[in-house]
Amino acid sequence: MKTELVIDLEAEKQEILKRYRALLRASKSTLQKGDKKEIRKAFDMALESHKDMRRKSGEPYIYHPIAVAQIAAEEIGLGTTSIVCALLHDVVEDTDITLEDIEREFGKKTAKIIDGLTKISGVFDTNSSLQAENFRKMLLTLADDVRVILIKLADRLHNMRTMDFMPRHKQLKIASETIYLYAPLAHRLGLYAIKSELEDLSMKYLDPDTYKFIAKKLNEKKAERALFIKKFVEPIDEIVHEQGLVADVYGRPKSIHSIWNKMKKKNIPFEEVYDLFAIRIILDSAPENEKADCWKAYSIVTDLYRPNPDRLRDWVSSPKGNGYESLHTTVMGPRGQWVEVQIRTQRMNEIAEKGFAAHWKYKESSNDNGLDQWIQKVREMLSNPEANALDFLDDFKMNLFSDEIFIFTPKGALIQLPLGATALDFAFEIHTDVGATCIGAKVNHKLVPISYKLQNGDQVEIITSSKQTPKEDWLNVVVTAKAKSKIKSSLKEEKRKIAENGKEILERKLKSLKITYNTDNIQKLSYFFKLPSTQELFVNVALGKIELKDIREYLTTEKEIENRGPERPENLTVDGIKNKIKGGESDILLIGEDMQRIDYTLAACCNPIPGDDVFGFITVSEGIKIHRTNCPNAAQLMANYGYRVVKAKWNRQKELTFLTGLKIVGIDDVGLINNITRVISTDFKVNMRSITVDTNEGIFEGSIMIFVNDTEHLENLIKNLLKVRGVTGVTRFDA
Ligand code: MN
Known about the structure:
Bound molecules: manganese (II) ion
Largest sheet: 5 strands, mixed
Strand content: 15-25%
Shape: globular
Number of helices: 29
Number of strands: 19
């Protein structure tokens, strides 16, 4: 089929200029003498070099770099150098322009940032298994210049905003990477607005049904909510101004993704999520009055509404590591509903919205810069080249999202650690040697073990012994990436020494058996003892786990295994399966088809049924597993192992049934269980595999495993179960 595209070039030219002028307006606040000329030069270069290119939507390509530059200026608050780099971020990658051209025209700094952007642009595009390694490379550029990551985030945000024209499998992949790494990064850099938008957009593609469901629910109650907020805010507004504070008081909706997270975490329906919005009080304060004004506003709010004593958060006195400053409290609203109130000044608000760049701008006025410390930490972590890239990423991601606690040294210095950190983490934070020789600690003058979980405000003194060395199980004790990587490298070193010793012992043993010591024989031996590497073989010999008699046994079976080379099942499987699928009519795996020559199983973590949006994942040893795109494991799989993902589609067949679970809650009533099972078995003729029921003081909670045909079948069943008297909620559960 041919689609004809009618393009009005003159109108497009006007539109490009219009967008360019909007960019200039957005960057106005940071413009200095000569900057406008620089930006124009970059714009002209980008326009000329992308002139024959179009986006998937058919629009001129130049719209994209202009939009990325506008996000960088307007939503992240970056200056001219970054705007220039954003305009040119795709030229080296996609056009004839070279880095040398950029350096000649715009100087070293700009060329260096664009070089970084070009390098990481390939991070996700490869079809290799090395994506974790690529993530690490990307983070390395962060150590060079954070602006590379910030512009990359702007680039990703614009791509996510304009993804509708992409094919479905690309949407899934890009959305997975975004939720897996970019959103956490935005969070850690303090870009809360961008983080929330990235999360919502990812959800829109990964879990479209839930996304639409919550959006619709939010929209239904919009007017009611607006009225509630107005009534709640009015008295605050009045008294705040009476007391001479200048403030903007308003309600702000929470993101769809965060509402969904709450529903899942607390296992509650939408109706029971109380904080669909937060109240913000943004104060216009002189720098010297900021803290006092925030507490004044807090006092006004809590005079009007009763606060929940457990929910006071003071990030004004101790800002978060990413620079976030704010006073949070949760109060009881007039209709018996908890309401979160966030109090901060305009300066703090700008940092909260735009993060890092805004932080820089105010650097002089803020006393210590947590973000600098954080970037220093990232550098330290990255400087450990031995860490396994995937492990590293897991640790790193955990540290991106965790909350912080503040711990004091014996001399009163403040150390920031992630929530859940132990005395051993603290020891490694002080110094690697202190960590490696730690045998215990005194917390608030009381003796505690190394595994002690620290509390906010603890004062900690570490006790060491020169006889101590890092142990394997320490890895379960620590949570910080720093401590983990230090322990791992120390264990590795330890193992290397043991292996060296084992190697000598093995040489002697082989000699006594008259076996030549060479690589070939050593590999055969490791294979015989089913060990993953020759190093493991040496270690086992050193520890006495492999003895002379074991090696003799090997000699007797040696002939048998000689012809079997080491197996490489992994690559064979991935490529083999992919080719098999391609050998069919399309490159999509059809599920439920008898003719299918490919083995697959339905993943137990999300129990997909026909009608669910799904993909196939080629596992190492268990063939293809089918997952739902909103499976809790999906983002991690698609982001890290893109080359193992295959497109999959249901081939509808009514005769087949699939196992799924339903959670039913309600008020216990005579005959309730009977009525439920009647709907399931008699009305719907659905087979039940198991049913467990829990009644507690009149509340009924049942889990039922049933066999259904597809999502439509399931939805109808749910609808009818909800009509049963006494039933208040029916939800599908995965495992
Ligand atoms: Mn781009």
